[in-house]
Specification:
The chain is mostly helical and 385 residues long. It has one domain. The protein is built from 20 helices and no strands. α1 packs antiparallel against α2 and α4 runs antiparallel to α14.
């Protein structure tokens, strides 16, 4: 009976988080409410679990890393360096090149609904609205499979204990497949976007500097120290090259909500582990194919939450008993990522849809097949490894 109560409590807790996130409620508050609801099973343990979470140096390091990523993205956006970079690229590339490059470059800014930034820059009245919507969403997001500063990937590396660059190496083949899937649609377009603008490539320094430093340092030290050195270097570089130097940029880039959200995810993880839920779920599902459980459940949760960080935070503590290799960690990430990418309540989907106004059914005829195909391919590849 205790097992039943635990499972039901997990379902209620996760349902509350998914419902709140799907309805655009504050993510940090949603995760904390779900965690506190689950802690009602053993309320006397909550103070110890809170202390365990807040005193864990890895949790504190993770929070700081995520905050620094957010700060770097905000400075690049607010300083105008990203716009200068886009203008510079526009002066050199064909329209087909811009269709790939603009959403990709702006995709490096992990801001909610960021696809709206690139949509006007690739708009072409002669192109099909469904295809423009698909390309804008696809190339904005697929880089998060291999981008070391993608916060969900940083979180998953922490939860699983795997090196983030090991995960990236495993996910490169899937990224390449995704890139060529998008290229199939890009190849249909011809002609030029129009007016060429002068710009600067200086923004590339601030983007590439923290990534290159982190990769270099990862050969000599663990991931956390590498990022804690690399990210401030990137932030200082972006401030140095910026023509606009304002404390407001820094102030705007500090996100208390994001810090609370990461803390809430780690607290939720500790509460789940304390309830013994992972062992209970494993005992009931162990007779089924673990690979199919990971891929299908991850895709569904990504689709329902439309929030990759939330999906990773929810999924890993529950699915960890089924994960016995780093390949299955990547399978969880890719599957949840694909569900998140095409979710109808994903802010980028909503905003890009509102901008281009494609036919809904026609759009999902384009988006659904490749997303499911990628999950199937990932299931086969990571199931073999």
């Amino acid at each position: 009976m205790n097992d039943v109560v635990t499972i039901v409590s997990i379902i209620i807790s996760f349902s509350l988080i998914i419902f709140l996130v799907a309805n655009r409620k504050n993510f940090a508050l949603s995760v904390l409410l779900g965690a506190f609801l689950l802690s009602a099973l053993h309320p006397e343990k909550l103070p110890d679990l809170l202390y365990k979470t807040v005193s864990d140096w890895k949790v504190l390091s993770l929070i700081l890393i995520v905050l620094l990523i957010k700060l770097l993205a905000t400075i690049l956006q607010e300083s105008g360096e990203m716009k200068q970079l886009i203008n510079a690229l526009s002066s050199k590339l064909s329209y087909r090149g811009l269709l790939i490059t603009i959403p990709s470059v702006l995709g490096l800014l992990p801001v909610p609904g960021g696809a709206l930034l690139s949509a006007p820059l690739i708009h072409n009245e002669k192109a099909k609205k469904e295809e423009l919507t698909f390309i804008n969403l696809w190339y904005r997001h697929i880089w998060f499979m291999i981008f070391p500063l993608a916060t969900p990937l940083v979180l998953l590396a922490d939860l699983s204990g795997e090196n983030i660059f090991t995960l990236i190496k495993l996910q490169i083949p899937i990224f390449v497949i995704c890139f060529f899937v998008g290229l199939f649609f890009v190849s249909k377009f011809s002609g030029d976007k129009g007016v060429k603008k002068e710009g600067s490539y200086r923004g590339l320094i601030a983007i590439l500097l923290p990534v290159s430093i982190a990769i270099s340092l990862s050969f000599f030290m663990s991931t956390y120290p590498a990022f804690l050195i690399a990210l401030p270097a990137g932030i200082f570089a972006s401030l140095y090259i910026s023509e606009r130097k304002s404390f407001d940029m820094v102030k705007k880039g500090i996100s208390i909500n994001l810090a609370v959200a990461i803390f809430g995810i780690m607290l939720l993880k500790n509460i789940i582990l304390d309830t013994g839920a992972t062992s209970i779920i494993y005992s009931h599902l162990s007779s089924y194919n673990s690979i199919l459980i990971i891929s299908s459940l991850s895709f569904i949760v990504g689709l329902l939450t439309a929030h990759n960080l939330a999906a990773v935070g929810i999924l890993y503590p529950i699915l960890s008993p089924f994960i016995d290799s780093v390949a299955l960690v990547s399978l969880l990430y890719i599957s949840s990522f694909m569900g998140y990418l095409i979710s109808p309540i994903h802010p980028c989907v909503v905003l890009t849809y509102d901008y281009f106004k494609p036919k809904f059914t026609s759009l999902y005829k384009l988006m659904l097949p490749p997303a499911i195909l990628i999950v199937i391919i990932a299931t086969i590849i990571y199931g073999i490894l």
